[in-house]
Amino acid sequence: MKILISDAFDPSLPERLARFGEVFDDTSRLSEANVVLVRSKTKCTKEYIDSAPNLKLIIRGGVGIDNIDSAYAETKGIAVRNTPAASSVAVAELAITLMLSVINKVPFGHEGMVTGDWRKKKIKRMELFKKTLGLIGIGRIATEVAKRAKGFEMNVIAYDKYVSTSDVAELKGLDEVLAKSDFLSLHTPLTDETRGMINKEMIAKMKDGAIIVNTGRGKCVNEEDVAEALKSGKLGGYGNDVWYSDPPENSPLVNAPNAVLLPHIGASSKENLLRIGDIVVEIIETFQN
Ligand code: NAD
Asked: Rounded to the nearest whole angstrom, what is the distance from the C-alpha of residue 183 to the centroid of ligand 1?
């Protein structure tokens, strides 16, 4: 079996996979590969799949498989697998990090310290305590966010079009979640329904000064509308890990006020990369038998 590791995985993975056959990371050898391991960087389009005539299995280390043309892969007899359960804690911790970072103005304070500007009087902090957190989507990651938010004694509510019960959040309609949330954290996959879901009209239904955190998918928000709402003060802050493209091109969020921006690192904790590695080994083992 020939295994191409196309994106960044834990450095121990090549050695752990060696028992299954040859493992390489030279993407120019795609045509030889029977198995390809990707995260979000490699785009498995029709053209990509067509240039891999020996491919039998694509493994996406992570949750969203929107970078893989799964329907086309299926027509070619190529199986697509992912590791959905691995990343929940890593992404949930980042969502909380972004909320805390926005309300404590961590980047602004840090920048002041390294440039010799003592910004003590310029920083007005805010607490999570007793605030309402609204979750859009209450799947694996949002559930972990809810548990952690309760540690801060937040009131947690959620809207999910396809889920009607939750042990960790009070489920509400979308408009009620928008109207009641001091913080809104986005956890839906990118689908035709969620594309651009958080736009001007939705933001208008939110409290003045509310804060949005996006660790879901960049295209679930309209970036122009979010940047506009930050400039006008309608939104009090925005914490973002996900973009229209990695890296972003001409994103209006980059120059927007009160935004804390990260380069899509939700799944990149060292613990998570190890967990993903464990599941990749299991998938290949099962696939081989
Ligand atoms: P999940 O499938 O467990 O949960 C997603 C939830 O969204 C489901 O409960 C689903 O019913 C709900 N949903 C779907 N369409 C909806 C709609 N139109 N309106 C409201 N709710 C809707 O997935 P998860 O493991 O929690 O991951 C969520 C998303 O997080 C992934 O799809 C991925 O896009 C993103 N993610 C980001 C990173 C990162 O690095 N920042 C890492 C992993 C996952």
From this structure: 17
Atom of ligand 1 nearest to the CA of 194: 18
- The encoded tokens of residue 192 equal 């035709």
> Half-sphere exposure of 126 toward its Cβ, with a 13 Å CA cutoff?
16
63 and 99 within one domain: no
CA angle 244, 235, 251 (to 5 degrees): 25
Q: What is the pLDDT of residue 72?
A: 98
49/101 same-domain check? no
Which structural domain, as residue segments, surrounds residue 282?
2-84+269-288
- Of 188, 219, 275, the one to substitute when testing ligand 1's pocket (max ligand atoms within 8 A of C-beta) is 188
Give residue-wise pLDDT tens across range 177-211.
999 999 999 999 999 999 999 999 999 999 999 99
Phi–psi pair at 58, nearest 5 degrees:
-110, 125
Amino acid in the structure at residue 99: M
Residue 33 carries which side chain, given as an amino acid letter? A
Structure tokens belonging to residue 127: 């607490």
The CATH number of the domain holding residue 176 is 3.40.50.720
Bridge partners for 36 per DSSP? 4, 58
Model-wide pTM > 0.85? yes
| CA atoms of 160 and 146, how far apart (whole Å) | 14
